Amino acid sequence: MRRLTYFVALSIDGFLSGPDDEVDFYPSSDAYSARMIETLPDVLPTHVRSQLGVDDEPQRTFDTVVMGRRTYQPALDLGITSPYKHLRQYVVSTSQPELDADVTIVRDDPVGLVRALKAEDSPLDIYLAGGGILAGALLDEIDRLVVKLYPVVAGAGRSAFGSVRFRPTRYDLTDVVTFEGGNAVLTYDRG
C-alpha cells in the first residue's frame, strides 16, 4: 500500500508559517538547498524544477500531491494554476473554484480521497504538501513525516496540524540529517 508523507517546514517552536502565512523568515544554506534538490526533486513546484534544471528528473518518491487551499494560493498569486504539473494534483477546498484541468478540487472527504489514493497500484507515494488544517484532518492517514526543521523560533503562526484535539500519535524517528547553519531534516515513520 502507498504511504502518505507529510513533508513540512517547521520552526523550532512548531509553526509552519507566521500568522499571515509568512515563510520568508526561514534561514537556509547552500548545502541544505542542494540536498533537498538532489534527494527530493518531486516536492519542488514545476516552475522551480525548471529554474533549477531538474524538470526532466523522473519521479522517484511521489506521483501525487494533496494540498489545502492556503498551500495552493501562493502559486495562484504568481498566476500558476497547476503548480505541480509533474504530479497528479488534488486541492482540498470548499471554496476554491476549478481553474485548471490538471488540478482536481476535492470539496469534501479528504480522508476518503487519501484512502482511495493509497489503495492504488503504484510504486510511488503520496505527498501531503499541507497545510496544517488539512494535515490535522488527515493525521490518522499520515504514514511518514519529513520535517524540515529551521533554526528559528517564530513565536506565533500556523500550527503544523491545525487545531487537532489532544491525541498523541506515535511516530518513530528513522533518519536525521543536519546541516551547517542549523537546518535539520527529521524523518518519522508511524510507530
Automatic annotation (TrEMBL):
Q: Which domain of life is it from?
A: Bacteria
Domain called Bacterial bifunctional deaminase-reductase C-terminal: residue spans: 4-182
Would you indicate the residue range of the signal peptide?
A: none
Q: Which Pfam families match?
A: RibD_C
PANTHER family, sorted: 2,5-DIAMINO-6-RIBOSYLAMINO-4(3H)-PYRIMIDINONE 5'-PHOSPHATE REDUCTASE, DIHYDROFOLATE REDUCTASE FAMILY PROTEIN (AFU_ORTHOLOGUE AFUA_8G06820)
This protein is called what? Answer: Dihydrofolate reductase family protein
**Species lineage:** Bacteria, Bacillati, Actinomycetota, Actinomycetes, Micrococcales
